[in-house]
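Course exercise 7: structure representation. Students receive a sequence record and must write out the corresponding structure in token form. The form below is the worked example handed out in class, using Wax synthase domain-containing protein (457 residues). Read each field label carefully; the graders check that inputs and outputs are placed in the correct fields and that the protein name is recorded exactly as given.

STUDENT ID: A-19
EXERCISE PROTEIN: Wax synthase domain-containing protein
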Amino acid sequence: MASKAPKAPYTPIPKGEALTIVLAAYVPALLLCLYGRLPESVASFYAAHPVELIAGTFYLPMLGIMYLHPRSPLRLAIIPIVALGYFAYRTAVPRFIANRSRASFPEGPFYLLFLTAVDALVLRRIYLGQDGKEKSERLVSRESTKTKANAQDTSGILSWRALGWAHKVVFSYRAIGLPKQTPNIPKWSNKDPSYVPSRTAFLVRRGLAVVGAFLVIDFLSQQPKPDPEDFSAEKALLFPPAHTLNGATIGTRIFSTVLWWTILRLNIGLFYNLFSWFGVATFLTKPADWPPYFGSVFDSYNLRRFWSVFWHTGLRNPLSSTANFFAYDVLRLPKGSLFGRYTSAYLTFALSGFVHTLMDNTAGIPLARNTAWKLFVTQAVGITIEDFVESTYHRVAGPSNSKSTALWKKAIGFVWVLAWMSWTTPSWSYQNMTHDGEPLYPFSAFASFKALTAKAS
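STUDENT ANSWER:
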């Protein structure tokens, strides 16, 4: 039996090219986010034509990967245009979406579009080969002795195959069915991992999931508002003053943390299921393109599994591609080294915190008191602590030969995750709980029912 050829060592992007990418892509985007000002005439034009300009921003990278040669300098030129597109949206959106909660909703995809465009257009230089398979010009260059370049399919919008592929690259953040598909994608069935529901079964399940999630969220939103004093900025600190610590405040942190992540999971799942329902109902996509977005909460018995197995991995590809670029191509850290891996992890969580902070700002939370970034950075700290404790335990107790995790270890793990999340989550959740924002959904079923019953009585 022939042995596998050794994996080619990672070859960083040449220093000059890496610097060019930083200066042409990331620096303009950062400056626009922090200091940009949109001329009044441009803001007015954007507000008058938001649908066309938003669509243009999203479809420009698609045209780039379909038509431009992997080494074309025009690929890099697209990136600042995408950055300008999301900056224009962020600046002009109050003019055409009055509800700030709804205005913040499309902002996340804009940031993910930027990071995805950088990754696809210039970091990996992907293209569609004439054999219908996605190719990476970087990979071809690094493994030139084993891999041959495949002629580019430039049929573009004239080919459903090319159009479908480009659409997946830009909009499928988990890269379902593509070479860069994120790991740990939840299965439809644990008993039969290959199972995929029929179109009818898919539509019924996802439709019920949307309705069920909406009703639960709606019910919770109709409950009496909590006392703002219970969620003050002082109590949200990672190290709150001693006089604020008592059984009641600790209990509030734990209960509100569980409630916060539950509502967040329901909201994200609702929109994912809704989009998937329309995609499959219109025959534009297949059920296989929309696997479950979240794993089982029972798999989250450590922080690493919470973020990589239970919680959605929709941001992982866009964020980690940029984090890896800075860790391995800009800083030139050895690929796979301990320092390199942790640098990439910290950068990934920091980027996530930056994105969520800007989204919360659009929703109406001023940057001066916006501390969402703390939650995400502290997750990397928690994983570091967790890895150290686990490695120390295995050095003392010896490696485990069991393929499954003992129940008592899972129990300790769940307590650890709950404790860490309850300590760190208030830095993000409390500011949202005390923010008097507009409702995300256009109507309330429970409020309407109450009004009808009151009128009838």
